[in-house]
Each structure stands twice: as C-alpha cells, then as structure tokens.
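Whiteboard transcription, Tuesday session. T.W. wrote the structure tokens on the left side:
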C-alpha cells in the first residue's frame, strides 16, 4: 500500500514537471516568433500613375507598409500633417502606382522656383480673389481645371431691368496651380479651432498672356466665381469659342414681362360754331 502511494506521488510530480517544461518551451517559442517579426512603418506611396508636371491631390496618395530596415531614403511617413504638406506639390518625374513618393521626386509648394517649374512653356500665372462661395467652399485643389465666371451689374436706369445683370465666361478650362498665400489648399482640419488654417482667399491659375489680360479686366467689372470641371481632362477652349453672356431676363422670365403701364388718353371734342369742330387729347 505504501509502495503504491509512493508510486502515485512520483507520477504526479513527473506530470507536473512535464507540464512546466512544456509551458516553458511554448513561451520560448512564442518569444522567438515575436522577435522574428520585423517592425514596420507606413509610408506615402502613389495611388495611381503620377505623370511628371502634375500636382498632387488627396486622391493621389495612398499608404504603403514597409519594414523599418527597408524604408527607402527620402520616403515620407504616412501622417495627416505629411499628407497635407504634400498637397499641391509638383511631380518631377513619373511615379509608378505603389511606388514611394520620395522627397527629391517632388517640388514642394513654397520652394524656390516652384511657380516657374509648374508653368508650361509660354504660360503665365494670374491670381484672383475668392471667398467661401466663389471658391467652391474651399474644395478646389491645385491641379483642378476650372472656368472663371464673371457676374456684373449694369448700373444704367435707361437699360431694361432684364438687361442689367449678366453672367459670362471669361476663361474656360484653366488649371489651378495654387490656392491661398501658402500655395496649399485643403489642409487637414485641426481639432483645435485656434490652430485651424485660414481659408484660402486667392487662387492662382495657369493662363496664356491673352487670358491673363482678360482676367485682369474682369476683376474690375464684377465678382468672379470658379466653376470646377470634371476629373476627365479636356483640351482648353480658345476665347473665340466662349459662349454668349446670359442675361437676367433669360434666367427670370418675370423680368422680361415687366412693361411700363400705358397712359390713359382722354379726348375732349370741342364744338366751335362756324370755325369747325376740334378734338383735344391729353
């Protein structure tokens, strides 16, 4: 009986020892596996093919995961601040989809020679003032294509009411190359309102010399508004192809139905004996 009890105790001790040994082996194996997983970081990569000379927009940026040791030199970490700083930057050379956006592959807004590098040969940069409404509520980005719409009021009482307000296109399908004094638009909003960037009050456009003159004259005629084009690029129209102005009475038929009330004409017939009769109208 004593022998059996001793054997039972030995078996229990052996079982406990095996369990402890197994747990120790599993822990060491888990530590080795954790140590074998390399650390990774997220960097900014091209979401699609980026052509040389194009301006970065939010949709052009994507996140790519690389190991810390394999992080390319000049790569940009994926943070809200870094994304904001890249918006509006110009691509120096084509970047393939998924390729990292390297610091030396772009020209940042505000860098020396940025505007000269962005402008196509023979083109000019002209800046127009905008507000929250005329600037499409701050949703215009560098690289967008817009029309410039002029609305003017003709202050002449001799002109019919329906012809005193007109809207007309001044520029068609011109490229936005900068927004705001910082040459950046659409910065990531800060949780602290005091740190939020001020809304852009200017937009810089890429135009021909003739278009620059038209735009400068238009700024003195009335308020300008920007009309955003679709994402599909189309060749710019010449000034000869601009549509005719739209007048107030074309928008509001009520203005074309305003007519002066005709005066009431009274006639008095006077009998003047032998001198004959005569009618007087007043």
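and on the right, the sequence the group agreed on:
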């Amino acid at each position: 009986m004593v022998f059996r009890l001793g054997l039972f105790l030995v078996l229990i001790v052996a079982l406990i020892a095996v369990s402890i040994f197994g747990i120790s082996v599993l822990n060491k194996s888990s530590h080795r596996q954790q140590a074998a997983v390399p650390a990774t970081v997220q960097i900014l990569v091209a979401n699609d093919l980026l052509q040389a000379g194009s301006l970065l927009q939010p949709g052009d940026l994507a996140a790519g995961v690389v190991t810390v040791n394999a992080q390319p030199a000049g790569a940009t970490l994926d943070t809200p601040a870094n994304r904001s700083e890249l918006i509006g930057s110009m691509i120096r050379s084509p970047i393939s989809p998924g390729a990292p956006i390297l610091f030396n592959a772009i020209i940042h807004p505000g860098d020396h020679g940025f505007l000269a590098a962005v402008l196509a040969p023979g083109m000019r940069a002209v800046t127009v003032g905008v507000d929250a409404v005329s600037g499409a509520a701050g949703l215009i980005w560098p690289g967008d294509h817009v029309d410039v719409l002029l609305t003017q009021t003709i202050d002449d009482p001799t002109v019919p009411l329906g012809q005193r307000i007109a809207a007309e296109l001044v520029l068609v399908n011109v490229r936005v190359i900068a927004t705001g004094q910082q040459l950046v638009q659409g910065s990531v909003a800060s949780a602290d309102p005091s740190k939020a960037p001020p809304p852009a009050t200017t937009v810089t456009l890429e135009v021909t010399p003739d278009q620059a003159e038209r735009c400068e004259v238009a700024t003195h005629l009335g308020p300008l508004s920007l009309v955003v084009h679709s994402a599909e690029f189309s060749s710019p129209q010449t000034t000869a192809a601009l549509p005719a102005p739209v007048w107030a009475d074309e928008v509001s038929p009520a203005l074309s139905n305003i007519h002066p009330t005709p005066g009431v004409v009274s006639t008095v017939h006077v009998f003047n004996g032998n001198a004959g009769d005569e009618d007087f109208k007043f």
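Someone added at the bottom: Residues 133-137, 181-196 have pLDDT under 50 and may be disordered.
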